[in-house]
Amino acid sequence: MAALPSPLSICRGILKELRAIHGASYRRCLAYNYVMDQFRKNKVTGARYCRAQQDAHHASYSYLCLLQSTRNHQVLHSLYHGKGERCPEEVAGLVGLRLPTQPGGKGWEK
């Protein structure tokens, strides 16, 4: 398994995603309070190895991945979905192609 980022960077990432969702008032939402309480409760101590702390670290990283993936999905969904019927030229342009033109005026091109 790959090494997880530090808990501080995960916390910052989660707060960044909450800020993107809720705007400037993200500190007043319940998710912000819950995340901050959980990070304070599972703070790193030098006393001993704690399995619950490692589980919380992994769960927080998974939550950050979920938030980022959801935001990326919404961006892609709004970009490519819900445009209705598209003309062939527009569809070809989406994938970076151009439709060939027929020289001589066969009657089917514009």
UniProtKB/TrEMBL annotation:
InterPro entries named in the record: FMC1_homologue
One GO cellular component term noted in the UniProt record for this chain: mitochondrion
Family statement drawn from the similarity comment of this UniProt entry: Belongs to the FMC1 family.
Task performed by this protein: Plays a role in the assembly/stability of the mitochondrial membrane ATP synthase (F(1)F(0) ATP synthase or Complex V).
PANTHER family: PROTEIN FMC1 HOMOLOG
Designated name of the protein: Protein FMC1 homolog
Organism: Betta splendens
Higher taxonomy: Eukaryota, Metazoa, Chordata, Craniata, Vertebrata
